[in-house]
Amino acid sequence: MDKNEKLLIRPYLRTRSLVPENQESPIEFMNTPSIPEEYFYKRNHFPYPEIQKNAFELSIEGEVQRPMVFSLQDLLSLPSKEIAMVMECAGNKRAFFEPKVFGEQWEMGAMSQGVWKGVSLAELLKYTGVTYRVREVVFEGHDYGYRNDLNGEYRFARSLPIDKAIHPDTIIAYEYNGKPIPFKHGYPIRLIVPQWYGMASVKWLRKITLIANTFNGPFQAIDYMYYPFKDNDIGKTPVTRINVNSTILQPHDLAQLDTGIHTVFGIAWTGMGTISEVEVSLDQGVTWEKTQLYQDLNSMYGWTYWSYKWYAEKKGEYVLMARAKDTYGRMQPSNAFWNRKGYGFNAISSVRVKIE
């Protein structure tokens, strides 16, 4: 290597499974508001589908006045909008539940953020019309596979209540960060649903069906439900909006630091309103101090950066804690709501450090 050539060191995704491919974003190294596609987390239920580019079509049918089929060129010709938003897997931070739960043991990187461009679904439905009977809208992807629990093959399909489906910011996206959506993230089009967990943003979208009843597909009625009890289904409720949450990005857990001034730095996000404050504690939650927030006022769906100057004068071991609050008054709890599938973990964020 030439003495003037610098070694380029890059972070990498952490693999949780190979087939289907599930990988975490190196979120603690991502200090940009828009995550490059190569670092965007991957969450799949089945192997990647085979899609013929030239044969792409999106059909809209069911409780509509005029069933229609749209080509990609049709979508590109319609009025578009861009949505900058957090996308978080419902299982993000599952590894931190106590007692432990089964499933991909995501830590804090099953989330990313970027800018999606596409057509508002409400705009498309102007062409098809909607009957008064519509209750939900079902979105079906090209991906499918075998489910052992049901002894059969199923496509990935999810529904939204009609009010959420026709929200102007629910879009059929064809670009991510100014480029066509990468294949592994849903090319050529995917649904984008701000403020809901990532399972709602169906990838490789092939069909939209408006229905007058409740959709009961397995990824709606079995998976992505909060089950409060280990051995029965009493009290189950659907997983929808993102919980208010935060993550300490720096310093890292179990870091060894010198005495002096350190910046405690992180992100906070929510599925309702925006982040109103983030507090940190250095004494196991006895007292809390407010942090400095850095918000993108043009992105009501993005995460908020925050920082706090810590004057570490005494040597010893410390637990640094952070909790976020949103404009709806929701605050991170001391303990996450335990549920047997491990969704929605949002307990107070913490790291342990040693001052030497």
UniProtKB/TrEMBL annotation:
Domain Oxidoreductase molybdopterin-binding: 45-217
UniProtKB keywords: Metal-binding, Molybdenum, Oxidoreductase
Record has Repressor as a keyword: no
InterPro entries noted in UniProt: Ig_E-set, MoCF_OxRdtse_dimer, Mopterin_OxRdtase_euk, OxRdtase_Mopterin-bd_dom, OxRdtase_Mopterin-bd_sf
Superkingdom as given in the UniProt entry: Bacteria
MF annotations from Gene Ontology: heme binding; molybdenum ion binding; molybdopterin cofactor binding; sulfite oxidase activity
Pfam family, one: Oxidored_molyb
Zinc-finger in keyword set: no
Cofactor: Mo-molybdopterin
Domain (Moybdenum cofactor oxidoreductase dimerisation) ranges: 239-354
GO biological process: sulfur compound metabolic process
Gene3D superfamilies reported in the protein's UniProt record: 2.60.40.650, Oxidoreductase, molybdopterin-binding domain
PANTHER family on file: SULFITE OXIDASE, MITOCHONDRIAL, SULFITE REDUCTASE
Protein name (database record): Sulfite oxidase
Native source organism of the sequence: Collibacillus ludicampi
